[in-house]
Design a protein that fits this description.
mainly alpha, 5 helical Cullin repeat like, 3-stranded mixed sheet, WH_DNA-bd_sf, ubiquitin protein ligase binding
Length: about 850
């Protein structure tokens, strides 16, 4: 196998290592001449290889430093003698005169044309310089590698850029002036921006190229990013003039524009400045001009804009101006993460609108004329003179439901604003929630009104609605329940109203009732709904019990038991409202109702049946909550007989059955009826009004005929009663439906509620102390308030009194006086 010949590195020719002075001068002259040709755009005839070799020869002569300095001087001379003259010649006198904003309109066209001419000349000079130095740098590549690396000098390109900075931009435009080209550049660009801000169209690309130049030049030879001329010279001037402009602009907009216009124009300014930085100036300036806008245009003015009379946020909220509110929100959010100014106005307006709803409800509730001072009720008690007469129950109840509906409408309004204008801001949501809670809880009837809202809808409001519509209706109510701080008071009313719906079979849908309980359980916990669920359990057990009793009655063969079809609801006394289960009224013990013989027989039969299964229990009959279907026969004066099936209250049944033993044409007085039935006066009046006064259900006749029932009034069975219906429902006047409590009832409810709260506080204190054994006063108070706050906000003084009561009864003891502390007594 033949071997490959060995390669040798040839030594440089002797001529290339020469260092004679005449060789350097000759070579330099050739090189310098060629460099000038490059600047004058006559480089087409030049040979890059020859120029490179000449520079290479000089470096090999060890004259690289001298070559570097001569090229530097050549470039300086070129810039000083040629380029500078062309640029200064393009600077007209109009560019040198100081311009105030007021002069802009008159001089804009002249100065604008002169400015564009100057910028074009400067742009061309810069681009030519970059192009030529790119070519020259390629020629001097070897020199750069040797000199820049070995002697730590900047490249010839960097040096030439610095020469452009010093010889062009920092040169005086006139021999007798200190104004430099950079000064003219700065003022011209700022003037163009001022024109654009005033609505004129400018040459953005031209300005952008000049900005490129400032971004490509540095204060230092090491070219740190922060030393760019754009950042050190132009940008500070741009930001300063922008600051002044937006100070004036903010004042101008406030004086001439409404809030919505201010926000729209301010938003437009923000967009303009962002585009200006991206397409005219530099993206480096975008965050800085944002700060100027935020401070001068927005932060200093936004509070005043928000509160502008007649056009501010209040007006926008009232008229659902979502676009305007969105702009206000965006501007406020730019300068304040908490949106404090906007939040304050929104909260205030919500409370104001809520208080208007409260006031309207109160006005409806309390309006009406006072009764005559000499009027007496059926019990013979004189009505208080000068005391306001309450509005009809249905009107008060309608007012309560309207209150809830209007709040739900207000909630829907602000939900829409929050979602579409405030971008579902969580901070604002918390503030809106706080405001709703404030005005809702300022109405001391809010719990009662909300319960009446549910009562009305669960009785008839859900009829004809789809499952989704029912679900949405209940969810709306639950939303308001979140705002109610006294949830135990709401539970009291809801339990009372639910009991009437269940016992009088007024619920439109038991599924909806159970769905409501489920939603409340998820919202406020199992403890809240425990009693309500027990009420449903009692009703289910009662259905089974009624069925069992009917089977028992059939098997017994007693014909009297078969005459009365009995349906029983056996209620757990501790789970149902106290007013239903109580045997007292206004502090007085009420005697049990005297049932007719037929009913008493069946009543005793059921008692024997029930107690045989549940030994030790006691049944207390609550006639005020029952209903009855009775068959009535009316014999006309012409002998014609008409029969009707009457659906009445249990008390009304007892009253009507008295007339079975009254001969035709004879009467019973109010006092006689009361004595025979032992029905409480208040209930007896209402039932007699239903039977004898209500126009369509006058089964009885009253003498004298009047709306009021008095002790001496007489009542006759009305044989001439007529109705187009076989089945006639006779409701109890002002009692068959749930209603708004009067002042006396309200005071009684509050008293009962305070008693229940006291018991809850004591139970909480005992639980805590049993677990902790010893606690100081502040710790115990904090834990009690925390535990009970989900149901109600405990009164601090009540908590203190209950602690003292527990100490007196020896559940707790004082273990320290300073600081006060307590111990649990096992």
């Amino acid at each position: 196998m033949a071997m490959r010949a060995r390669q040798k590195i040839r030594a440089p020719r002797r001529g290339l290592t020469a260092n004679k002075t005449d060789d350097f001068d000759t070579t330099w002259n050739v090189l310098a001449s060629s460099l000038r040709e490059i600047h004058t755009k006559n480089a087409s005839t030049l040979s890059f290889e020859e120029l490179y070799r000449n520079a290479y020869r000089i470096v090999l002569m060890t004259r690289g430093d001298e070559l570097y300095e001569r090229v530097k001087q050549l470039e300086k001379d070129w810039l000083d003698n040629d380029v500078q003259k062309r640029i200064t010649a393009a600077i007209s006198s109009s560019l040198l005169l100081a311009k105030e904003p007021a002069d802009m309109q008159d001089q804009s066209n002249e100065r604008r044309a002169a400015g564009e001419k100057f910028l074009n000349v400067l742009k061309e000079a810069w681009e030519d310089h970059q192009l030529c130095m790119g070519m020259i740098t390629d020629v001097l590549m070897y020199m750069d590698r040797v000199i820049s690396t070995d002697h730590r000098k900047p490249s010839i390109y960097v040096t030439a850029m610095a020469l452009f900075r010093d010889s062009i931009l920092r040169s005086a435009v006139r021999s007798d002036s200190k104004t430099t080209v950079a000064d003219v550049l700065e003022s011209t660009v700022l003037f163009m921006i001022q024109l654009e801000r005033a609505g004129h169209v400018i040459e953005r690309p031209l300005i952008r190229h000049c900005i490129y130049m400032l971004e490509g030049l540095y204060e230092t030879i090491t070219e740190e990013e922060s030393s760019k001329l754009y950042l050190t010279v132009f940008e500070p001037a741009f930001l300063e003039t922008s600051k002044t402009f937006y100070q004036t602009e903010g004042r101008r907009l406030l004086e001439m524009a409404d809030a919505a216009t201010f926000c729209r124009l301010a938003t437009n300014r923000i967009t303009e400045e962002k585009e200006r930085c991206r397409y005219t100036l530099s993206t480096l300036t975008e965050p800085k001009i944002k700060d100027v806008l935020d401070e001068e245009l927005i932060r200093k003015n936004i509070a005043e804009v928000i509160n502008l009379e007649g056009t501010g946020v209040r007006n926008m909220l009232d008229h659902d101006r979502l676009d305007g509110l969105r702009n206000v929100y965006d501007l406020n959010a730019r300068v304040d993460k908490t949106k404090a100014a906007l939040t304050k106005v929104v909260q205030k307006r919500i409370v104001e609108m809520g208080q208007e709803i409260n006031s309207s409800s109160i006005a409806t509730e309390t309006s009406g004329s006072a009764p005559k001072s000499n009027e007496k009720d059926a019990s013979g008690e004189k009505k208080a003179a000068g005391k306001e007469k309450e509005k009809p129950v249905n009107q008060q109840t309608v007012s309560a439901i309207k209150w809830v509906d209007e709040i739900l409408g207000l909630k829907k309004k602000f939900d829409n604003i929050w979602e579409n204008a405030f971008l579902s801001d969580q901070g604002l949501q918390g503030s809106i929630t706080k405001s709703f809670a404030e005005f809702i809880n300022s109405n001391n009837r809010s719990s009662e009104y909300l319960s009446l809202f549910f009562d009305e809808n669960l009785k008839k409001g859900i009829k004809g609605k789809t499952e989704n519509e029912v679900d949405a209706l209940l969810d709306n109510g639950i939303t308001l329940l979140r705002y109610v701080k006294d949830k135990d008071l709401f539970e009291t009313y809801y339990k009372k109203h639910l009991s009437r719906r269940l016992l009088m079979k007024r619920s439109a849908s038991m599924d909806a009732e159970r769905q409501m309980i489920s939603k409340m359980k998820m919202e406020v916990g199992n403890q809240f709904t425990q009693r309500l669920e027990s009420m449903f359990k009692d009703m289910a057990i009662s259905d089974d019990l009624t069925s069992s009793y009917k089977d028992h009655a059939l098997q017994s063969g007693d014909p009297d038991q078969k005459r009365v079809d009995l349906e029983i609801n056996v209620l757990t006394s501790t789970m149902w409202p106290m007013e239903i289960m109580s045997s007292t009224r206004d502090g007085e013990v009420q005697l049990p109702c005297a049932f007719p013989k037929e009913i008493e027989t069946v009543k005793q039969s059921f008692e024997q049946f029930y107690l045989s299964k549940h030994n030790g229990r006691k049944l207390s009959w609550q006639a005020s909550m029952g209903t009855a279907d009775i068959r009535a026969t009316f014999t006309r004066s012409n002998g014609k007989v008409q029969r009707h099936e009457l659906n009445v209250s249990t008390f009304a049944m007892v009253i009507l059955m008295l007339f079975n033993d009254v001969p035709a044409g004879e009467s019973l007085t109010f006092e006689e009826i009361q004595a025979r039935t032992r029905i409480p006066d208040h209930d007896l009046i209402r039932n007699l009004q239903s039977l004898a006064v209500a126009p369509k259900t006058r089964v009885l006749k009253k003498e004298p005929m009047s709306k009021d029932v008095k002790p001496t009034d007489k009542f006759y069975f009305n044989q001439d009663f007529q109705s187009p219906f076989m089945k006639v429902r006779i409701g109890v006047v002002s009692g068959g439906a749930n209603k708004v409590e009067n002042q006396d009832q309200r005071k009684e409810t509050e008293k009962k509620m305070n008693d229940e709260r006291g018991a809850s506080i004591e139970a909480a204190v005992v639980r805590i102390m049993k677990q902790r054994k010893t606690l100081n006063h502040s710790q115990l108070m904090n834990e009690v308030l925390t535990q009970l706050s989900a149901r109600f906000i405990p009164d601090v003084n009540m908590v203190k009194r209950r602690i003292e009561s527990l100490i007196d009864r020896e559940y707790l003891e004082r273990v320290s006086e300073d600081p006060p502390a307590y111990g649990y007594i096992a």
